[in-house]
């Protein structure tokens, strides 16, 4: 009898975590490594949030809590949805988990039956397809190409939907591209969904507050109220509040779905960390003044990276609306050979050679479902970004 489940054969480890781990190992071995793979802000958690966590510890708020969130946090989440998105939810419609990933996983586990499909626009966050597979479903990939600014078109969405479709997973601004959908672009997609009442929407809004220039964020249930009863709106405190390690994600949706997610969480992790929940209350209810200040720095970094990468012959780097990623195409470099003799047959070979020869760690595009590209996280210092992009420029200039 085999020890391991056959389910594991359906999934692979996270490539982004693998890149970050490899970079850390090389750095520990003494290599000069610049890691551009991790999807987390380099800012510290704001002091008011840390103070709230310390106060919770000192007040003894370190016991088990309700399975899917303390009442105070659920109230704060309801207030956030009303304030930021114009969406009315009750605490009974809210689930709090150990990060946004658990929220998504719980929802898929609670709803998918074998053979049911989930439409995922590509490029996609690396975990979406594998979570669908773990839950017994079938990912259906809908391409969102460079020619369309990495945004799903209504025609591509329509073509991907079948009678077996259970969910569309929607992410704006996007990981890995930073692409953000305007209200009109999103309305065109929701019009398609209205024609298919069996399809639910899982909207991953984790990068909501990381929006630049004149881009205005919107979410599906806000744009099309008729989708409210079949939308799970997912968010968290990791990105905007620099709280990746605190592990708090949340979602709001129909009570029946939230109850099913609660049941799964009750038999897996139970409640999220009590102290992190109290910190999240302060994050959502407290001052938001540092978000636009942080965004100014992110926008400056984006402009730096986009400018330097677009100076490279054979590389095309769109200017994204949000998040802290760029997703340049290397179509013009495929087939060339690096200075150390590595043939660039695909984007994985490019990323591997770049790390080995220059010490710059990026994530190859195939991990996100669309090649030939690579992802850069610009959530690091200006100096590190300048040096990394200079190394990428030299690496590409030496390709023959």
From TrEMBL:
Its cofactor is pyridoxal 5'-phosphate. Keywords: Aminotransferase, Pyridoxal phosphate, Transferase. Residues 32-392 form the Aminotransferase class I/classII large domain. One of its GO terms (molecular function) is transaminase activity. CDD domains: AAT_like (cd00609). Its EC number is 2.6.1.-. PROSITE patterns: AA_TRANSFER_CLASS_1. It catalyses: L-aspartate + 2-oxoglutarate = oxaloacetate + L-glutamate. Belongs to the class-I pyridoxal-phosphate-dependent aminotransferase family. This is Aminotransferase. It comes from Sulfitobacter aestuarii.
